[in-house]
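Recap slide: ABM domain-containing protein, sequence and predicted structure.
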Amino acid sequence: MIMRIFQVEVRPGKEAAFRRFFHDTAIPLMQATGGVEMLLPGAARDDSPRHFSFVMVWRDLDSLQAFVGEDIEAAHIDPAEAEMVARRTIRHYDLVAL
């Protein structure tokens, strides 16, 4: 399994709009995406109001590539999200069973 950590920093002044997008669009989209075995959405906190993240556990590389394309370092960007986000970070890890 592959753990994908996707973090965004929202543009100043876009926090409320992104919060709505995150809860109303992004989370339901990821919950409905085949191949996602676990989803941990992280909403902004008072001490970091412009930062949101997803920790996703994907079944396998094929599932992840079916969603983002051949280049797994690429972000899957919804058009509504593009103008709100200043920065994105994506990291991948092999999930270690406990």
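The domain at 2-94 is CATH 3.30.70.100 (Alpha-Beta Plaits).
The chain has a mean pLDDT of 93.
(End of recap.)
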